[in-house]
Amino acid sequence: MRRRLMRALGMIALALGMVIVGRGPLYAADGSIRIGSFLAVTGPASFLGDPELKTLQMYIELINTDGGVNGRQLELIHYDSQANPKNAVGFVKRLIDQDEVDIIIGGSASGETLAVMPLVDKAEVPFISLAGSIKIIDPVQKWVFKTPHTDRMACQKIFEHMQGEGIQRIGMISGTGGFGKSMQGQCQEVAGDYGIEILADETYGPKDTDMTAQLTKIKGTEGIQAVLNPGFGQGPAIVTKNFRQLGFEVPMYQSHGVASKKYIELAGEAAEGVRLPAAALLVADKLPDTDRQKPVVVAYKQAFEDRHGAGSVSTFGGHAYDALFMAVEAMQRCQCSDAAGVRDELEKTAGFMGTAGEVTMSPEDHLGLGLSAFRMLEVKGGDWALLD
């Protein structure tokens, strides 16, 4: 189905210019399979939710045009959470109790995802999160899955690269939001496994507009060989600018939470040389032809940018693509849409090649990605370049 839909993308004109705020199904059809979603389409995390919603809209329309799933149309019911956990809780209650959705795909940010997990567990509704924290799938919860690489994996990939560069002593400055705080903790836990010593450990709040004081402390710490910034949103761009203004002469590493062109736009020339782990999607056209993931990421990138403009693709929209098609393929395998059947088939996902990498899940692993799914990138000439 995925290959057929990719071929059809250039031939189908979609009427998806509407702005969705609050509730309201995109499609209304008797007997449809209802997909619920809550995403940060507006607000400070809109760079996450906007491409995620656009991806769901585009591919659900294409799937419906192609005949639906098991002969039934898909109906998308979406709410704009603005990455606010309280909003997310209210919307997920509505999706479960009033909209009676069959599955939920959403949670742009870790905080809102963690807030709704008890609800989906109690209601026994399959939930595929698009957020980064390892706490979403560790420990495994029966009804919860996720598509992005975890923050722990990001720490490991970064430290693996630092180890290869002979970097042993670092400074860290982390956001205090759900993702930043979680990744900070994960990096602290695994640093010793790679011979990395964190000599300075600073934080900043979500509303902070200048991190010069924290970075000055890091710069004044003797022996610092690199700086790592766990965080997402506008904070890392500010950190990057302040880092350059202070004249650091060591490398800066960011998290996969900034894996979109929006970060480069916000940080400007200061982003040059910044290193980070990210999905292959950001360098789709630069992958060797022998790379098994290349056909998937090139096709998604082309489809998204044909619809929404050159340079608009991000790994965040890719998370939604992976979640949707893992759900669709699970429904096709079980020839069902009931919660228990779909959940069981999601857990059996094996060899699924998505934008994040090859996914093989199990009862003990509701992510299914290995560390090799991450690529180390560097900002060069205002664009992404492969480091390995």
TrEMBL record:
Assigned protein family: Belongs to the leucine-binding protein family.
InterPro entries from the UniProt entry: BCAA_transport, Leu-bd, Leu_Ile_Val-bd, Peripla_BP_I
Record organism: Roseospirillum parvum
Domain Leucine-binding protein: from-to ranges: 32-382
Protein name listed in UniProt: Branched-chain amino acid transport system substrate-binding protein
Protein's GO biological process: amino acid transport
Alphabetized UniProt keyword annotations: Amino-acid transport, Signal, Transport
Pfam families: Peripla_BP_6
